[in-house]
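Appendix B. Worked example

We walk through a single record from start to finish. Start with the input: the chain for Tetratricopeptide repeat protein 39B, Anopheles quadriannulatus, length 508.
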Amino acid sequence: MKPLATSSMYHSVGHSVFTYLEAMLTFEQQHIAAASEALKQCLNVCNRYRKKSTLTETIGKTFKKVNYDQYTDLEAHAELCSAEALLLKAMLTFIEDETLTSLIKGGMKIRNCFAMYKECNNILTHRQWESESSKLHFESGVRMGLGTFNLMISLLPARIIKLLEFIGFSGNKQSGMQDLITGSQSEGIRQVLCVMTLLGYNLIVCYVLSHKEGDLRFCDELLVKQLNQYPDGVWFLFFKGRLEFMKGNLDDALKCLRLNWRESLLFATYLVENSKWSRTIYTYQKASIMCMLKTEELHSSEIRTIATLMKEVPKYKQRIAGKSLPMEKFACKKTERFFAQQSFLYVPALELMFVWNLFKILGKHFHLADGVYRIVEENLNHYGERVNSKSNPAFGVYAADNKALLLLLKGACLRQMNSPLQATRCLEEVIALFKDIKEDHYLVPYAIVELALIYIDQGNKDQAILALEDAKKNYSGYSLESRLHFRIHTALMELKGKSYENIPSGAE
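Next comes the structure step. The output line below is what the pipeline stores for this chain.
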């Protein structure tokens, strides 16, 4: 791509996509700077080929219908490539520096980009194409762009969507999905990007931002075709692993949830040493896994390593667009607790699995949930013994926090094991501890949402809505709040039958 990136539009787009991916995957300053330069160059190349409008034509656009047949195929593609480069530039703006100005700039660029994609949709549908092949590739780009916008905006909580609609955005989930599916079935140049977006949505976004599963059968069909064509494609192999993980086929997914802490420690160490994406999270993850090993299983040097890792966690904390990452703040708070409790935390790796919404995978096979349940039960017994003996002077301060965490995890396990009555008892006990909890206030709204999911499973729609509204309106300022609000939003949308489907895709 690189040799022709200064003269050929598509080579320039391709080159900038690869430099952008490197920047996003490494977060290293030199790669961010290289991506920014490549995208700036790409926009310059695209501008050479874009249709030049006179002042009269620009004013006329406001008052009369545009004649899209005046665009050549090349000029049409220049609009599309500009929209793509502008979107990547906007996304890069959020990590280039931390000021409010950069946040506003990024938001404005995304808004302009959305307007460009809508204009490209008009070009697609309102002009006579010189070449069917040219139209095919153009359409796959329009489907990919508008589909991704519509899908992602529709996932946002209602108050944010209303604000975005006010400044010209719209989010139509059904239309977005249909655009992406159409794009994934075409032979256009961006077909593979449509496929990757659909896989990313169904295998990652659904699990992080909602209580629902992605369409695993659909993903299986997509991956069979893609791996047949690209057997060594690293992204498709990654998504295949993720698919098997979500099915609960842990051997096929590389032994992720088997509670083999020694083996997982090897991978956690590799991430700490080789990935700069979030050293804070990876360092805390490694320390958490080591905390899951029994004291008698640890060497004295490993006990010292846990303390060293916990001290290092806050050192790598990042600010993106002027804000700390919620998950990094969560990890830093937990390291403070570790030292306040005399170098001790209850089941920190299981807590991470829960907040990352991985407990739903436990429900795929009884033995998976049972393995986690046994660990939680063992720790609840340990908690009881420790409270009675009062062996730790600082322990009493966080007694309610620790008990609530263990009960929440137990309740979540029992829900996955189809024991709703026992699960409800545990979760109600968590909620009753609200006034006694010193720091981990997130446990109560998360417990209420777990209760709501039990009501949904039992077909008790009204009670589920009441619980979700309670968690949404009556609790705030806790760790990982926005993460839970996304899940509440998707659950309420489903229960109330409300959505933003009435906003037409590409509407003016």
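Two observations about the output. The first helix runs from residue 9 to 26. The beta strands are 319-320, 323-324.
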